[in-house]
């Protein structure tokens, strides 16, 4: 039996920017980057793998709304900033 322990990489199809942060859908995860210094981007948070690829991201205040789907069926996740791990 295989156990999923993580996920790295994947297609980048969704990006939202608010202030000094970029919220990027990378494959099955939402990654938050500090973009205050464009010459040195820094990951400051990320979700674990979601059910499907991240297709769209919208940020309202400190809450991320992420649409993940398989092309036919989509789920919207509500992710407060505090739910992301550094």
Describe the structure.
A 4-stranded antiparallel beta sheet has the order 1-2-3-4, with no helix packed on it. 0% of the residues lie in helices and 53% in strands. The chain has one domain. The chain is an all-beta fold and 86 residues long.
What is the structure about, briefly put?
The protein has strands at residues 12-18, 21-26, 29-34, 42-46, 53-60, 63-69, 74-80. It has 86 residues and is mainly beta.
The span between the termini is 29 Å
Biggest sheet layout? 4 strands, antiparallel
The percent of residues in helical segments reads: under 10%
Question: Which spans of ≥5 residues are poorly predicted at pLDDT below 50?
Answer: none
Output the number of helix runs: 0
Spell the H/E element sequence.
EEEEEEE
Structural shape: globular
Q: Find the count of extended strands (DSSP E, 2+ residues).
A: 7
Strand percentage: over 45%
Q: Looking across the biggest beta sheet, what order are the strands in?
A: 1-2-3-4
Average of per-residue pLDDT values: 78
The SS-based structural class is mainly beta
| Computed Rg | 13 Å
How many separate domains make up the residues? 1
Task: Summarize the topology.
Layout: E1 12-18, E2 21-26, E3 29-34, E4 42-46, E5 53-60, E6 63-69, E7 74-80
């Amino acid at each position: 039996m295989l156990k999923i322990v993580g996920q790295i990489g994947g297609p980048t199809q969704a990006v939202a920017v608010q202030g000094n942060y970029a919220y990027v859908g990378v494959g099955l995860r939402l990654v938050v980057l500090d973009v205050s210094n464009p010459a040195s981007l820094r990951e400051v948070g990320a979700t674990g793998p979601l059910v499907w690829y991240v297709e769209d991201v919208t940020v309202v205040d400190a809450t991320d709304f992420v649409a993940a789907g398989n092309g036919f069926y989509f789920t919207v996740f509500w992710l407060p900033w505090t739910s992301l791990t550094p």
